[in-house]
Amino acid sequence: MAIVAQTSKYGKTGRTILAWAVGLLFFFPIFWLVLTSFKTDADAVKPEFLFFFTPTLDNYLNMTENYDYWRFAKNSVITSVFATVFGLAIGIPCAYSMAFNPSRSTKDVLMWMLSTKMLPAAAVLYPMTFLTKSLGLFDTHFMVILVLCLINLPIVIWMLFTYFKEIPKEIIEAGQMDGVNTWGEIKEILIPLAWGGIASTALLCFIFCWNEAYWTVRLTTIDASTLSKLIEGNRAPEGLFFGRLSAVSAAAVGPIIVLGWFCQKQLVQGLTFGAVK
Fold first, then answer.
1. What are phi and psi of 50, to 5 degrees?
2. With respect to CATH, is domain 69-233 assigned 3.20.20.60?
3. What is the pLDDT of residues 163-219, one digit of tens each?
4. Which of 101, 174, 258, 266 is the residue whose CA sits 20 to 30 A from 29?
């Protein structure tokens, strides 16, 4: 007869307190960012104004009126959405092929793709800048979308490959016996079965594209500038404008937080896809 250890009331309370403490620890930077965004630049650097200050919306008004926040936000949406869509369009067939038609070199190819993430971005900055300017693609949406798609493609393929491997191969073979072609297998069988994994992959890819700062700052100037460029622009020789910088940063991370909140079900479903239940 199996003996099940019962958790004491103090143990449950301790775990609850610990969970809240960890949650608050992770949430505190966001809280502090939002709090600072309602301060003036002078109040933001004064310790005596940590919590006792007069809130102001000047930072947000300045961001929308003088810095054209909506243009930067639109560029971030365009580049992130299209980079995610193109990444999935390439990653789904690649992961399908490797998961259901593997070869002896499949693992080597997967490791090679993952190794590209180990390359320091600064090592290829000059060649990328020279190439984009030579081809007339510098500061264009196409170039930013292409770069974001390529740098996130290894992660997309790896995640999709992991999800697809959990789907029984017999289901795909049954579709083949019914005369379904390759595109039909992907569209009618694979995507519905792995929708949770695909949704979580798309969400993570979108977040990575949205948060990318290194390439979006260095490959753009005005036309294709994203919110990362707007945040970087709040630096000056005199120093950092913490109030304005916090407002811009809060406005940049806000959409991602809201998106993650509404898509948390798909994210959890995808991240636990194939786990032992």
1. -60, -50
2. no
3. 888 888 888 878 878 777 878 888 888 888 888 888 889 988 999 999 998 999 989
4. 266
